[in-house]
């Protein structure tokens, strides 16, 4: 498509319309048809209000989307791009993104998203507002649910998987949108939409990494974030939207604002009028205005008055049209319905959910359950079919949801129930006659997601009451925790003999949980976020820099962080058990010293470890490789994840986990914002989680 020819023929108003997105829902289809006859908007977002993704939404029928599209194409010659928040599934949902990160299995996640894209495209959606790549270190922040957790490296791997899954290798699926650029996850105190303080050093070394990975994977669009960073709203930051995003990261798609964020520049106090806000945002590099119509209502006049040049508008229009072209919308603007491979989608959702379950403890091998054991189930979440799907699942088909109870019943006839909230009820005897008690606890999806931060992240008194009742029976107690965020379990963890952190596992929750509880597969999820012990420890994350005094409580149980509680989390990043035992062999490195020249020229050292399954259960183990830069011009984290290898190892067998360490792994962004490797000693750890302590040394030598 000759984009330049199209731009040449467009009026200024037509150009500004291409830079504007407005809402389309079932209720305004006719109105929209009339509007598009006259004004060909660049994009319509399928939404009814700003947090539609957190609620329920009735998709607009395909024929209606095609009717509107026909008007755009035939009347104006430019197709509309339909956008929608498709975050971790469309009809049959995968687990929440935080849980998907817990799989430590990017290949599987990519496959999952290929199906998500297929379902969404089938409903006429060609653009999604995901993946959400905000580094999230604060479980109070409701949107941690949408993130891939606290780690930049894991974030990069998930970013690549999700972007490629959504877009397809040839970009014919649906366009992805890396959001929220940037620093939204650092909102102070976990308060949504709040300010963030991020130094350039942290920005480049932590927050930008996954966005860079998304850009390198070809992400077509980016969404700017609501927050300000150190006094500068991202929406109007030329430094962030142009210099860093395009200049440093090399992004060449288009940027959309978050919902009404251009107008919010007035509330944020950096613009006085709508016109000023629109000029600031567009000049900063924000190409498309979501919802508030500020570009279309103000910039025509601003161009005529010489306040902004038409060239800037042309640049943005070019970017938008190029993406439409890349997606094939000019050649094939209409959506077509195809029969979906529903069983395959269910299967991948089940596998993702099963691989996301993190076994936190398993005293006396109380798990896996045996089919002839009588299991008494407690906790109303066991029957839930809505919250298990998680937030940002507006189009979920709840008839697809499998509750935990249903999943268990499908495996065994010996499932019974006890509702401890009804005194003297007739299921009470069930507790006494069972072999094991299974408690299913969790939080509602409505306390996670956008504008749903929580100051209290511990178990509630009602949940503790259920645990106390269960304990009274004197039977082994197994917990399944269905939460959208890492909660602070305090000492309650001691009451469980076995505990599975199950997140909000999506449509196949019940089947996946039953697969793991009954040992049809060993748990293999790993924590993508640190599990704090007390909420007062928040924020707490593994890749913190060392302190000058011995107060690194994350790693040292005796370190003095607080007067009242330990500084150590309950479980570290990367933690998770299996039903077997793994023995790690000696860490091998093919060279223990290398010149900086070789590193700068792309040479890598090879590191490997043999892992032996010494138990009697076939299982997957995720070997993790961390590095420590022992001396550098700036402080570097105590540990940084630089590789992981998820290996399925049969009982009694061994496999080798392999890692390559070079420029990318050893480098960091220095005080000049340059990515460098500094000579000196590095420790290379391989182990089960961030608390691992076996390492080999690698010396990077100066040239002299
Ligand atoms: C606001 C949210 O912050 C963003 O993530 C979402 O994509 C938009 N609303 C559109 O629904």
Written description of the protein model:
With 704 residues, the protein is of the alpha/beta class. It folds into three domains: 3-84 and 177-219 and 221-326, TIM Barrel (Alpha-Beta Barrel); 357-537, Rossmann fold; 582-701, Immunoglobulin-like (Sandwich). It contains 21 helices and 27 strands. Strands 11-16-15-14-12-13 form a six-stranded mixed β-sheet. Strands 4-3-2-1-10 form a five-stranded parallel β-sheet. Strands 19-27-26-21-22 form a five-stranded mixed β-sheet. A hairpin with a 2-residue loop joins β7 (228-229) and β8 (232-233). It starts with a helix and ends with a strand. The mean pLDDT is 96. Bound molecules: 1-deoxynojirimycin.
Question: Concise description?
Answer:
With 704 residues, the chain is α/β, with parallel strands linked by helices. Strands 11-16-15-14-12-13 form a six-stranded mixed sheet. Strands 4-3-2-1-10 form a five-stranded parallel sheet. A five-stranded mixed sheet has the order 19-27-26-21-22.
Topology diagram in text:
Blueprint: H1 3-9, H2 12-18, E1 20-24, H3 29-38, E2 43-46, H4 62-76, E3 81-84, H5 97-102, H6 106-122, E4 127-128, H7 152-167, E5 177-181, H8 200-207, H9 209-216, E6 221-224, E7 228-229, E8 232-233, H10 238-248, E9 254-256, H11 261-267, H12 274-284, E10 289-290, H13 294-304, H14 310-326, H15 342-356, E11 358-362, E12 375-378, H16 404-409, E13 415-417, H17 428-433, E14 436-442, H18 461-472, E15 477-482, E16 498-501, H19 509-517, E17 582-584, E18 588-589, E19 593-595, H20 596-600, E20 605-613, E21 619-629, E22 640-649, E23 654-661, H21 663-666, E24 668-669, E25 675-676, E26 680-687, E27 695-701
Parallel strand pairs: 1-2, 1-10, 2-3, 3-4, 5-6, 6-9, 12-13, 12-14, 14-15, 15-16, 19-27
Antiparallel strand pairs: 7-8, 11-16, 17-20, 18-20, 20-23, 21-22, 21-26, 24-25, 26-27
Helix pairs in contact: 2-13, 2-14, 3-4, 6-7, 6-15, 7-9, 11-12, 12-13, 15-19
The structure holds 1-deoxynojirimycin.
């Amino acid at each position: 498509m000759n984009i330049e020819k199209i731009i040449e023929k467009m009026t200024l108003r037509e150009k500004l319309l291409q830079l504007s997105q407005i809402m389309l829902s079932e209720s305004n289809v006719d109105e929209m048809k009339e509007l598009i006859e006259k004004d060909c908007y660049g994009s319509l977002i399928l939404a009814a209000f700003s947090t539609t993704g957190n609620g329920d939404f009735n998709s607009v029928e395909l024929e209606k989307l095609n009717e509107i599209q026909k008007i755009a194409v035939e009347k104006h010659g430019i197709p509309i791009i339909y956008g929608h928040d498709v975050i971790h599934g469309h009809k049959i949902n995968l687990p929440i993104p935080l849980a998907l990160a817990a799989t430590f299995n990017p290949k599987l996640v990519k496959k999952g998203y290929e199906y998500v894209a297929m379902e969404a495209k089938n409903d006429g959606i060609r653009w999604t507002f995901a993946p959400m790549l905000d580094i999230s270190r604060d479980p109070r922040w409701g949107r941690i649910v949408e993130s891939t957790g606290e780690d930049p490296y894991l974030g990069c791997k998930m970013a690549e998987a999700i972007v490629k899954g959504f877009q397809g290798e040839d970009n014919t699926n649906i366009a992805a949108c890396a959001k929220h650029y940037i620093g939204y996850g650092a909102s102070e105190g976990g308060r949504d939409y709040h300010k963030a303080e991020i130094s350039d050093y942290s920005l480049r070394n932590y927050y930008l990494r996954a966005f860079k990975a998304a850009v390198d994977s070809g992400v077509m669009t980016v969404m700017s974030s609501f927050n300000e960073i150190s006094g500068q709203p991202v929406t109007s930051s030329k430094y962030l939207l142009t210099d860093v995003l395009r200049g440093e990261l090399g992004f060449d798609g288009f940027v959309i604002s978050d919902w009404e964020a251009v107008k919010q520049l007035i509330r944020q106090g950096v613009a006085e009028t709508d016109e000023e806000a629109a000029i600031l945002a567009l000049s900063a590099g924000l190409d498309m205005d979501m919802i508030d119509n500020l570009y279309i209502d103000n910039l025509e006049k601003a161009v005529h008055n010489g306040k902004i040049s038409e060239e800037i508008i042309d640049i943005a229009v070019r970017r938008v049209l190029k993406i439409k072209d890349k997606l094939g919308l000019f050649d094939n603007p209409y959506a077509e319905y195809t029969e979906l491979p529903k069983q395959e989608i269910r299967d991948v959702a089940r596998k993702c959910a099963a691989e996301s379950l993190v076994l936190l403890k398993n005293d006396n091998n109380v798990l896996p359950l045996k089919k002839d054991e009588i299991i008494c189930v407690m906790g109303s979440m066991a029957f839930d079919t809505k919250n298990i799907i998680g937030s940002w699942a507006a189009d979920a088909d709840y008839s697809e949801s499998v509750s935990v109870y249903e999943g268990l019943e499908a495996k065994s006839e010996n499932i019974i129930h006890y509702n401890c909230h009804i005194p003297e009820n007739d299921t009470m005897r069930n507790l006494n006659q069972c072999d094991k008690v299974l408690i299913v606890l969790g939080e509602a999806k409505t306390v996670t997601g956008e504008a749903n931060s929580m100051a209290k992240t511990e178990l509630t008194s009602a949940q503790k009451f259920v645990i106390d009742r269960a304990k009274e029976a004197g039977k082994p107690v197994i917990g399944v925790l269905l939460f959208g965020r890492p909660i602070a379990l305090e000492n309650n963890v001691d009451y469980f003999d076995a505990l599975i952190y199950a997140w909000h596992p999506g449509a196949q929750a019940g089947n996946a949980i039953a697969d793991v509880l009954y040992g049809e597969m060993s748990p293999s999820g790993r924590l993508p976020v640190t599990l704090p012990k007390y909420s007062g420890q928040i924020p707490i994350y593994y890749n913190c820099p060392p302190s000058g005094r011995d107060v690194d409580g994350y790693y040292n149980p005796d370190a003095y962080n607080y007067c009242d509680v330990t500084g150590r989390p309950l479980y570290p990043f990367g933690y998770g058990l299996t039903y077997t035992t793994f023995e790690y062999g000696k860490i091998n490195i093919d060279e223990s010293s290398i010149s900086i020249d070789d590193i700068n020229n792309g040479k890598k050292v090879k590191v490997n470890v043999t892992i032996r399954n010494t138990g009697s259960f076939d299982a997957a183990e995720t070997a993790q490789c961390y590095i420590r830069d022992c001396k550098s011009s700036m402080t570097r984290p105590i540990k940084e994840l630089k590789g992981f290898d998820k290996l399925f190892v049969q009982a009694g067998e061994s496999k080798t986990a392999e890692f390559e360490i070079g420029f990318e792994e050893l480098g960091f962004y220095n005080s000049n914002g340059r990515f460098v490797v500094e000579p000196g000693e590095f420790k290379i750890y391989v182990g089960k989680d961030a608390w691992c302590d076996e390492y080999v040394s690698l010396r990077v030598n100066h040239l002299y």
